[in-house]
Design brief:
- With 276 residues, the chain is an all-alpha fold.
- The chain has one domain.
- It has 14 helices and no strands.
- The protein starts with 10 loop residues before the first helix and ends with a helix.
């Protein structure tokens, strides 16, 4: 008596299922979900907003009441109108460091290892980290505007221009967020990233027209201020909120934002794919 043996599939063919394709729409949904995770983390730990809420209050108070008349040759109200848009730009740019800080924290704590085992788009943790900081930007801008209004700051253009100024800041902050994302993927600890971030941001923000007019600076420093992207952002916000030139600083800000994104976003995604 003979028996007929049915050939069985190789073990690998039985155990390995084909990987589901994740299209662009699903990748966007996954990134949106992880961006929501960032908001929930802020909700559970609101202390994360202390730097973007208390820092601008301290800067506005110090520069308006201690240095206002001495630095700019203006009275306090004139200097408040001058400096507050610049502080708005400085605050949101500093807040963008949080993108890289949170990303580096997830990597160092092993959370990205869990993401790798989940059926989600590989880009979702990175895009979610960048988009999730939108709430931090809005919170910091709201605090600056409310505190400025209490001190006497007034928008001298109109609501549409003011909203455009807020939009300009957020667009630039999102582009700078890609720089911190790239650094977060290279550096080992969040503390190192924060230290490097401050070393980069202080020359950019204080070496600009945020606190003083450019023409009051020495010639060699004016050359740096003119090519500093923070100068363009600050000039755009001032023009849109309190009046002044608009077209040139807005155009320069958008060009800088696009250039930073085009350079650093692909580098960050490439580095992320290597570790993911």
């Amino acid at each position: 008596m003979t028996t007929t043996m049915t050939p069985s599939a190789p073990p690998a063919a039985r155990l390995v299922a084909p990987k589901a394709h994740i299209g662009p729409l699903r990748a966007i949904r996954h990134g949106r979900t992880l961006a929501w995770r960032t908001l929930k983390r802020i909700q559970r730990n609101p202390e994360q907003l202390l730097d973007v809420t208390l820092q601008p209050i301290i800067f506005v108070t110090l520069f308006v009441f201690l240095f206002g008349g001495a630095i700019a040759g203006m009275n306090r109200h004139e200097y408040l109108q001058f400096v507050l848009p610049g502080v708005m730009a400085q605050t949101v740019i500093f807040a963008s460091i949080g993108t890289g800080f949170n990303l580096n924290t997830d990597i160092s704590k092993g959370i990205f290892d869990r993401f790798r085992s989940m059926p989600i788009a590989r880009s979702a943790p990175l895009s979610g980290a960048v988009v999730g900081d939108f709430f931090r930007y809005i919170a910091s801008l709201s605090v600056v505007l409310i505190y400025g209004a209490i001190l006497g700051f007034r928008i001298e253009t109109n609501a549409a221009y003011a909203l455009a100024g807020v939009g300009i800041i957020i667009v630039f902050a999102f582009s700078v967020g890609w720089i911190w994302s790239l650094l977060a993927l290279h550096l080992k600890t969040p503390q190192t990233l924060q230290g490097v971030g401050f070393m980069i941001m202080f020359p950019l923000t204080f070496g600009s027209n945020v606190f003083v007019q450019s023409d009051t600076l020495p010639g060699w420093l004016q050359a740096w201020v003119k090519v500093n992207p923070v100068t363009a952002v600050t000039g755009a916000i001032r023009g849109l909120m309190v009046g002044g030139p608009i077209a040139t600083p807005v155009w320069h800000t958008l060009v800088w934002s696009a250039a930073i994104t085009v350079v650093f976003a692909p580098l960050a995604v490439r580095k992320y794919r290597r570790i993911a």
